[in-house]
Amino acid sequence: MSLIEVQTSEIVKRQIGYKWRAYTGVFTSLVVIQLLGLLFSLNGTGQMGSGRTGYDVKITYFTADIIVGFTIFWGFLTAFLLTTKAYREDDFAFVTNRKTSTLSTIAFLFMICVIGALTALLSSFALKLLAYVILPGEEMLLIQGMGDVGTWLQGIFATILIVFMFSSLGYLAGMIIQLNKMLVIVLPVVVVGLMILLSRGGFQVEEYFFQFIFEENQAWLFTLKTIAVTTIFYALAVLVSNRLEVKR
Amino acid sequence: MIVEAFLPIFLLLAVIIGLILLINKSSRFSFGRGRAGLWMLIGYSCLLVVSAVVFLALPIGNTDLQGKESERKEEQTSQAFYDAVLQGKINEMEKWLIHEWSFPFNEEQLILQVGANDVNSINIFVEHTDGLTDTIEASYYQTPLMIDGFEVEEKYTPAVHMDMTTLTIYPGETKDLKYKMFGSEFPFRMFNREEGTMWMDSIVSHWNGSALYIRVPEGLEVFADQSNYTEVDPS
Prior knowledge:
The structure holds two protein chains of two kinds.
Chain A: H1 8-22, H2 25-41, E1 46-52, E2 55-62, H3 65-82, H4 85-88, H5 98-133, E3 140-143, H6 149-179, H7 183-200, H8 205-214, H9 219-247
Antiparallel strand pairs in A: 1-2
Chain B: H1 2-23, H2 35-57, H3 67-86, H4 90-93, E1 97-104, E2 109-114, E3 124-129, E4 135-142, E5 146-147, E6 150-151, E7 159-163, E8 166-170, E9 175-182, H5 186-189, E10 210-217, E11 221-223, E12 229-232
């Protein structure tokens, strides 16, 4: 029995440091997926054709929406894979318990989600610069107003929250699958099957979910909703992970 | 054809597999592990910051989407234009004049032949006037085409030909205009949904008025499909 009292916050801090140094593969995957998104975006995020008397107007729209979308998916997948046994057992190199391990993983996920969101938004400039310099043929350039500092900060904050929310979903899905490997097949089948069944009954869950989150135009309500959803998902993941401990 | 249809799915699968290989700790694929991953992120971030600085330093002025406000002005212009055309107020229409044609003509009948135009028809107006003898005048007027509040400088003109007693009007060469538009990402647009902030909203103005105004001598008989033109009587 040790007489040294170890503080939970201290352990969590150390574990975050360890994860930061050890899980650098997530950064490689982030760079790769954002570069891929950049490549796909060069074709334009959207196009609009319009005909007027004597004119055929074609406008190609460039935004980093695809890159942000890819980053959201990266957040989901990274969180999902961090629940695998190989990652979870790393924590036992330290003095740890399930609580500190989960807390440090969530904190680490938040840190990488912030990085992912910021780089995704910054890549928007790289995309526009490439489109401006490389892509030929267009006579005129139109730039949609970037908005003021407040809009910028809101946008950055919203991107971080969205990526983090999807990481919580990935973390929950990963934890559920850790209960039994068969769930890798069963879980998607059950989720998709339920969604199809409910949509036949006139209740489209995915549509309601996306409306609930993405059609919210009040920043404070959006923040509240995403934080609530993220907390619920992480709380459920913790509950599932506790069950995992009993099984082990 | 089949490969093309499945290409997005293959690409997505490749991305997912690649990501799993990169992140999954138990995979033997070791690209970008250790400090290499961190350096890759640092290098990438530096590149992004540099591109942001360069882009913001480029001499491209930011323009807010003019949207509905501009659309309202153009609607008013278009209404004023058609009022002037229908009342035959040529003086008021001068500012929108694009091209003029004049044909010597001393026959008693004029056949007006309008070429097929599948999408946007040319609005043709015919005025009988005492001011002309042995001449037919055609003028093409158009209010500026506005894109995102900017006036398009390239001007379109229909093709107008006179052959014996037939005045033929064809749509002419369509102007192909291509533009790039740099917008903000969806998280920025979420809390800013007032009119005109969504890029699809009225970037290309719906209100550009156009008219081919033909003046013929008084008493000249015009033969044409009634649906192809509008008779104007300034008096």
